[in-house]
């Protein structure tokens, strides 16, 4: 059928904000890697066989019985009060300083919306979480990359940058970072909190993985150190985001923000415009699971990911040629590979796929480019047998690329 009218020039009608959006490089890659024979270390998916299916079924029933039709009604933007109270108690702060969000991804978008004006300087790790760049990008930030090493952000470099650059915001994933698996060490956390406090820079601490530690010692959150630094909840310059996605299940989209009252008040306004509230029943289901299922589940996931990471590291050690660097995560779902200079992980991907193994090239994780010789491996959703075969195939791919 011939159209009667060519229709509007949609592209020309997009807002400046929409023009700044781009397709996630990872999603495009994931499409290629989802063929059934491919061993994929590319996706950042939690292990589905560990999901507590029966517990969620029981909790859904319990929530519907407990709350009746209120479980299916509209509810407050701030979130289900018992859930906020539980989270507040755990953090040692009032429930009023906790905002429930629809995935921590929503927190990143709403925080971008309320904090970033066009041209504002946002400091990000190099590399950083791609989803944060996607959330912030429409609001027109000017990124400055912070150098990182195995201890996380280089705080000496941060100090130098802050001396000359008036920044608005610093975004960081201090625990088992996506994409590198690295953790910001305790001493640097203190300096980061002090430096940003002194320079009036707000910090978004994105912590979906903190509970999934399988080795080493936990360091205090930036949020806790911010409380000490500021002396009160409502003067804390750290905004903390976390989520039930990696500890419980991602599909319920339940996550939260801890922040000073003025930030929470503005988030509430932004969230009203976005989705009114996080689904009522989903919040109630999670609340039913907090006291017994959540701690058990965290143990299960921690143990499984610890084993998978160990298998991956052992085989990397055996199979990868000398000169290939890798991180040793103490928790979370990812590790980071640095190939010898001159190798390009984007170009190498097709050769890896030919051997039925997939990964994500590292360069999209750099806000300002770079990292062509890096790549991210996820060990969370592959079995130990797949990890062994996949790492052997990747080792061959790297050797071939070096020839
Ligand atoms: N932050 C980081 C660092 C992540 O890795 C993810 C998930 N990939 C998110 C936020 C978003 O998680 P969710 O929206 O499921 O809470």
Automatic annotation (TrEMBL):
Gene3D superfamilies: Aspartate Aminotransferase, domain 1, Type I PLP-dependent aspartate aminotransferase-like (Major domain). One of its GO terms (molecular function) is transaminase activity. Residues 52-394 form the Aminotransferase class I/classII large domain. The keyword Transferase applies. CDD domains: AAT_like. InterPro entries: Aminotransferase_I/II_large (IPR004839), Class-I_PLP-dep_aminotransf (IPR050859), PyrdxlP-dep_Trfase (IPR015424), PyrdxlP-dep_Trfase_major (IPR015421), PyrdxlP-dep_Trfase_small (IPR015422). Its cofactor is pyridoxal 5'-phosphate. Keywords: Aminotransferase, Pyridoxal phosphate, Transferase. The keyword Transmembrane does not apply. PANTHER family: AMINOTRANSFERASE, KYNURENINE_ALPHA-AMINOADIPATE AMINOTRANSFERASE, MITOCHONDRIAL. This is 2-aminoadipate aminotransferase.
């Amino acid at each position: 059928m011939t159209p009667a009218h060519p229709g509007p020039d949609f592209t020309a009608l997009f807002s400046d904000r929409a023009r700044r959006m781009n397709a996630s490089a990872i999603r495009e890659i994931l499409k290629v890697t989802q063929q059934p024979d491919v061993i994929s270390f590319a996706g950042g998916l939690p292990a589905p066989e560990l999901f507590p299916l029966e517990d969620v079924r029981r909790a859904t029933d319990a929530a519907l019985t407990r709350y009746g039709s209120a479980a299916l009604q509209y509810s407050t933007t701030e979130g289900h009060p018992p859930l906020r109270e539980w989270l507040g108690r755990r953090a040692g702060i009032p429930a009023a300083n906790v905002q429930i969000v629809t995935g921590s991804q929503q927190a990143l978008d709403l925080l971008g919306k309320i904090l970033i004006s066009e041209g504002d300087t946002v400091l990000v790790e190099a590399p950083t979480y791609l989803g944060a760049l996607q959330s912030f990008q429409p609001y027109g930030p000017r990124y400055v990359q912070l150098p990182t090493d195995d201890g996380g952000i280089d705080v000496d470099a941060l100090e130098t940058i802050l001396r000359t650059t008036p920044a608005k915001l610093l975004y960081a994933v201090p625990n088992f970072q996506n994409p590198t698996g690295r953790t910001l060490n305790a001493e640097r956390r203190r300096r980061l909190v002090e430096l940003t406090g002194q320079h009036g820079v707000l910090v978004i601490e994105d912590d979906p993985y903190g509970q999934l530690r399988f080795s080493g010692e936990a360091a205090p959150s930036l949020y806790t150190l911010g409380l000490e630094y500021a002396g009160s909840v409502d003067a804390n310059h750290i905004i903390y985001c976390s989520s039930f996605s990696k500890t419980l299940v991602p599909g319920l989209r339940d996550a939260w923000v801890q922040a000073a009252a003025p930030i929470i008040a503005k988030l509430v306004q932004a969230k009203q415009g976005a989705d009114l509230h996080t689904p009522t029943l989903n919040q109630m289901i999670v609340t039913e699971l907090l006291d017994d299922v959540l701690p058990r589940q965290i143990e299960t996931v921690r143990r499984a990911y610890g084993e998978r990471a160990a298998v991956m590291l052992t085989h990397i050690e055996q199979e990868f040629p000398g000169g290939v660097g890798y991180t040793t995560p103490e928790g979370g779902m990812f590790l980071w590979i640095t190939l010898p200079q001159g190798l390009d992980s984007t170009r190498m991907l097709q050769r890896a796929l030919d051997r039925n193994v997939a990964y994500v090239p590292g360069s999209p994780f750099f806000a300002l480019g770079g990292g062509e010789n890096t790549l991210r491996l996820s060990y969370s959703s592959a079995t130990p047998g797949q990890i062994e075969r996949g790492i052997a195939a990747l080792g061959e791919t790297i050797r071939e690329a070096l020839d």
